């Protein structure tokens, strides 16, 4: 095996077997499983809510029936017909409360005495309001058909559209929601991947340089071979990471796609086709974004002399990543804001911002391709610049601060180019 392959294999297996990678790999799945488990138990507990008994003292027999139909957790104590009996039953914890309903001056008035029926009060108010409407309808001699027509709500149909090259294109609300939700997920995944794999590259380079192993390694190979061996190895680890999520996500979708709850939510919508269409570009932005920051990380790692300075070296990179992340979130609310539009064409911001513009249909395919091409060209430029500085810095040790080390690195690169 050639030397490049040795570096790739060593970097790949060392990181795949690491505890940090396994934790990074499994933590989102464990978190989703915990959230789903909590939701399941909450739903189970809600379905097993014990019924409470309420006494209703009223001359109108329809009120107890309406309460039963409106609140499945209520039962009516039919044997209690007077307020005195209800008060006695409440004092002995036989019921949870009693409702006294009277008609005064053609107006329905209710009085609720209870012990722990706060969650049922809105439904009781709704039932009394309905009874009041029926009472007024009888006074006005309205027929049931007339009353139903008065209570019929207005109908409002909504249609989300987008404008594509002067033409109005109809969209589906659910489809739009899926795309926007996917954009949020992509933004978070990009943040996590960049922070994790950029830090991995910095640790790979700075660890060997800080322990003076770099001198031994470069005595038998070139800095260029070492540079690309480390980056390709980490990149392959990232591909395994992505492939793992694709397999788990596909298996989960295939298992639950015919579930009653899923079918009730999505109906006949082909969610798989929507996600594939959206992820065609977003996944490419994810990969290019991670590669860009990996090149930056390799350059920053080459500036480090001591392993304890790794966090300091990663600070500039972290600030850029966090800035891009928040601009991406802002893009969801204001996708056509000038800051968002400009940032979507700035290569370091593109992976965070462009997925949201794609999800909200505020960018044409031409602009997406231009942004993607610009990010790809900038990645090649970063690779070239990072390699130059890497070869100049990898065997340079300095006790000065990070800024002075960067200045020395620039001076060294200029002097080598002049030669």
TrEMBL record:
<feature type="transmembrane region" description="Helical">
    <location>
        <begin position="338"/>
        <end position="356"/>
    </location>
</feature>
<dbReference type="InterPro" id="IPR013525">
    <property type="entry name" value="ABC2_TM"/>
</dbReference>
<feature type="transmembrane region" description="Helical">
    <location>
        <begin position="227"/>
        <end position="248"/>
    </location>
</feature>
<keyword id="KW-1133">Transmembrane helix</keyword>
<feature type="transmembrane region" description="Helical">
    <location>
        <begin position="285"/>
        <end position="304"/>
    </location>
</feature>
<feature type="transmembrane region" description="Helical">
    <location>
        <begin position="184"/>
        <end position="207"/>
    </location>
</feature>
<dbReference type="GO" id="GO:0140359">
    <property type="term" value="F:ABC-type transporter activity"/>
</dbReference>
<feature type="transmembrane region" description="Helical">
    <location>
        <begin position="313"/>
        <end position="332"/>
    </location>
</feature>
<feature type="domain" description="ABC-2 type transporter transmembrane">
    <location>
        <begin position="20"/>
        <end position="387"/>
    </location>
</feature>
<feature type="transmembrane region" description="Helical">
    <location>
        <begin position="20"/>
        <end position="43"/>
    </location>
</feature>
<keyword id="KW-0812">Transmembrane</keyword>
<dbReference type="GO" id="GO:0016020">
    <property type="term" value="C:membrane"/>
</dbReference>
<protein>
    <submittedName>
        <fullName>ABC-2 type transport system permease protein</fullName>
    </submittedName>
</protein>
<keyword id="KW-0472">Membrane</keyword>
<feature type="transmembrane region" description="Helical">
    <location>
        <begin position="368"/>
        <end position="390"/>
    </location>
</feature>
<dbReference type="Pfam" id="PF12698">
    <property type="entry name" value="ABC2_membrane_3"/>
</dbReference>
């Amino acid at each position: 095996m050639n030397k490049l392959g040795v570096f790739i294999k060593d970097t790949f297996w060392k990181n795949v077997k690491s505890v940090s990678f396994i934790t990074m790999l499994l933590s989102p799945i464990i978190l989703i499983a915990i959230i789903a488990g909590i939701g399941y138990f909450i739903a189970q507990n809600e379905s097993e809510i014990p019924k409470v008994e309420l006494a209703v003292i009223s001359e109108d027999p329809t009120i107890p029936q309406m309460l039963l139909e409106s609140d499945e957790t209520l039962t009516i104590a039919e044997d209690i017909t007077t307020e005195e009996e209800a008060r006695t039953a409440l004092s002995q914890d036989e019921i949870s409360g009693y409702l006294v309903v009277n008609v005064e001056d053609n107006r329905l008035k209710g009085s609720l005495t209870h012990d722990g029926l706060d969650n049922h009060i809105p439904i009781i108010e709704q039932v009394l309001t309905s009874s009041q409407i029926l009472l007024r309808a009888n006074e006005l001699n309205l027929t049931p058909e007339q009353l139903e027509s008065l209570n019929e709500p207005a109908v409002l149909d909504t249609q989300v559209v987008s404008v594509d090259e002067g033409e109005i294109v109809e969209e589906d609300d659910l489809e739009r929601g899926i795309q926007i939700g996917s954009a949020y997920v992509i933004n978070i995944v990009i943040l996590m991947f960049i922070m994790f794999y950029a830090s991995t590259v910095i640790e790979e380079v700075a660890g060997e340089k800080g322990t003076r192993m770099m001198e031994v390694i470069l005595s038998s190979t070139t800095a260029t071979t070492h540079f690309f061996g480390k980056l390709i190895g980490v990149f392959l680890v990232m591909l395994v990471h992505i492939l793992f999520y694709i397999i788990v996500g596909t298996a989960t979708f295939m298992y639950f796609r015919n579930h009653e709850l899923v079918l009730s939510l999505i109906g006949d919508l082909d969610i798989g086709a929507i996600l594939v269409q959206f992820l065609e570009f977003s996944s490419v932005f994810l990969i290019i974004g991670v590669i860009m920051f990996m090149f930056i990380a390799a350059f920053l790692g080459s500036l480090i002399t001591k392993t304890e300075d790794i966090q300091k070296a990663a600070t500039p990179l972290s600030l850029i990543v966090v800035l891009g992340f928040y601009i991406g979130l802002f893009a969801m609310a204001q996708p056509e804001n000038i800051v968002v539009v400009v940032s979507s064409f700035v290569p370091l911001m593109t992976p965070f911002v462009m997925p949201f513009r794609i999800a909200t249909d505020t960018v044409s395919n031409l602009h997406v391709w231009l942004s993607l091409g610009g990010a790809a060209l900038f990645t090649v430029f970063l690779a070239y610049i990072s390699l130059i500085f890497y070869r100049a810095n990898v065997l340079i040790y300095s006790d000065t601060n990070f800024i002075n080390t960067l200045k020395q690195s620039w001076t060294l690169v200029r002097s080598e180019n002049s030669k």
